[in-house]
Amino acid sequence: MKKDVHIYLNNIPLQMHYGATHKHALLRLNENLYKKVVQNEAEIHDDRGNKVQIDGALEEGVSYYVHEYKND
């Protein structure tokens, strides 16, 4: 049996089931952030600055950040 995955999303620690995606983490933390990503008003980056896809798998110990687009 696989262990849970421990991540940080916007500096908040989350414990997720193995195989969970960024979508699952966003929905657990804040449904409004999920909606913004789906509506292309924000995007998710890992702690190395790489953009990640909402359906991508979470990696143990990685920090992810949601970057919202500014309306100028």
Structure notes:
There is one protein chain. With about 70 residues, the chain is α+β, with helices and mostly antiparallel strands. It has a single domain, classed as Ubiquitin-like (UB roll). It contains two helices and five strands. A five-stranded mixed sheet has the order 2-1-5-3-4, with helices on one face. Strand 1 and strand 2 form a beta hairpin. Helix 1 crosses helix 2. The chain is globular and about 45 Å long. The protein starts with a strand and ends with a strand. About 15% of the residues are buried. The mean pLDDT is about 95.
Topology of this protein?
Blueprint (H helix, E strand, L loop, with lengths): L4 E5 L2 E5 L5 H8 L1 H8 L3 E5 L4 E2 L10 E6 L4
Parallel strand pairs: 1-5
Antiparallel strand pairs: 1-2, 3-4, 3-5
In short:
By secondary structure, the chain is an alpha+beta fold. The protein has helices spanning 22-29, 31-38; strands at residues 5-9, 12-16, 42-46, 51-52, 63-68.
Total domains, how many?
A: 1
How do the SSEs run, as a string of H and E? EEHHEEE
Strand content: 25-35%
Topology-level CATH name: Ubiquitin-like (UB roll)
Sheet with the most strands, sense and barrel status: 5 strands, mixed
Silhouette? globular
Overall pLDDT score: 95
Record field, number of beta strands: 5
Name the CATH class: Alpha Beta
| Helix percentage | 10-25%
Termini distance? Answer: 49 Å
Poorly predicted runs of 5 or more residues? none
Whole-angstrom Rg: 12 Å
Instruction: Give me the CATH superfamily.
Output: Beta-grasp domain
Q: Based on the coordinates given, report the CATH architecture.
A: Roll
Q: What structural category arises from helix and sheet content? A: alpha+beta
Physical arrangement of strands within the biggest beta sheet: 2-1-5-3-4
Total of DSSP H or I helical runs spanning 4+ residues? 2
